[in-house]
Amino acid sequence: MDILHGLSDVPEHLTEGGSVVTIGVFDGVHRGHQLLITTAVEKAKAQGVPSVVMTFDPHPVAVFAPERAPLALLSLEERARQIEALGVDYLLVIDFRKELAGDSTEHYVTGVLQGTLGAREVVVGENFTFGKDAAGTAQTMAQLGERFGLEVTIVQLLNDGDVRICSTAIRDELTAGNISVATDYMGRPFSVISTIERGAGRGGRELGYPTANQYVEDVSALPADGVYAGWLTIIDTAPIDGDVKPGVRYPAAISVGTNPTFGDTRRSVESYILDRDADLYDRMARVEFVDKVRDMLKFNSVEELLENMARDVERTREILGVN
């Protein structure tokens, strides 16, 4: 997959040769997004033209109403990785501060989709909006498509009962600690990807549970504070000092929160890899959440904390099905 940054980066052969385009922020690349993208990919293959996903960074809401900007489920890099896995040929990343925000609906279709991307067909969700002040809808796109000779496919939204599967619903489930529901909506485990940093050092030295500590940006979504069962994978390739290998998923008990027993204030993701010991500082890790073990609690003593940590590890083994 080729990644294009801005309309000026679109190659001439794409403009002239035609494409099938789908458009959206695609934060989370959840099951609804996957349906849109795979529909576009299949239609592009049937027509013998490239598939193009047009996405936005930063999120349009962060541009027009920063106070309402949603927490990101995925970084742009991870979003691109998930989109590439669906077989897309081109990912076009638009900076909404510089392009498209002020476009009329007509120019969006004739100038951008047809004029720059050579779109023969566009695939959008039924809740799609576009153009200045988000004045255009999916139906507007269909009407303009008829007028200007652009095929438009409108894909129905996915629902789980009365709940629409969307990025907002996933954030709500994460906030409630409902990891299994968030996983179902995303079509894969929710994960955190960042560099392992040095923490207070008490996990291994004082408690006997050395942890890999990650700190994520305030603009990124996290599950509710608590302890979770999941998996940790080192995703860079340099050799590791210890019995952990890059690229291998290891079972882990994962704590999300501020460590209230010790009065810490910085929120972190701390993973204890079961039955392993390695120096993982400065390594890039993916932590996948499988299910919640318990809520975050403040304990009256280190001894009480250790008793609960031992139970957390055993419960993690049960959830993950490991000895």
TrEMBL record:
What does the UniProt keyword field contain?
ATP-binding, FAD, Flavoprotein, FMN, Kinase, Multifunctional enzyme, Nucleotide-binding, Nucleotidyltransferase, Transferase
Q: Which residues form the signal peptide?
A: none
Q: Name one GO molecular function term.
A: FMN adenylyltransferase activity
Q: Which pathway is this protein engaged in?
A: Cofactor biosynthesis; FAD biosynthesis; FAD from FMN: step 1/1; Cofactor biosynthesis; FMN biosynthesis; FMN from riboflavin (ATP route): step 1/1
Segments forming a coiled coil: none
EC code(s) of this entry:
2.7.1.26, 2.7.7.2
Query: Is Cytoplasm there in the keyword field?
Result: no
Please list the reactions this protein catalyses: riboflavin + ATP = FMN + ADP + H(+); FMN + ATP + H(+) = FAD + diphosphate
Record bears the keyword Hydrolase: no
Family of the protein in this entry: Belongs to the ribF family.
List the protein's name: Riboflavin biosynthesis protein
The source organism is Corynebacterium imitans
Give the gene that encodes this protein: ribF
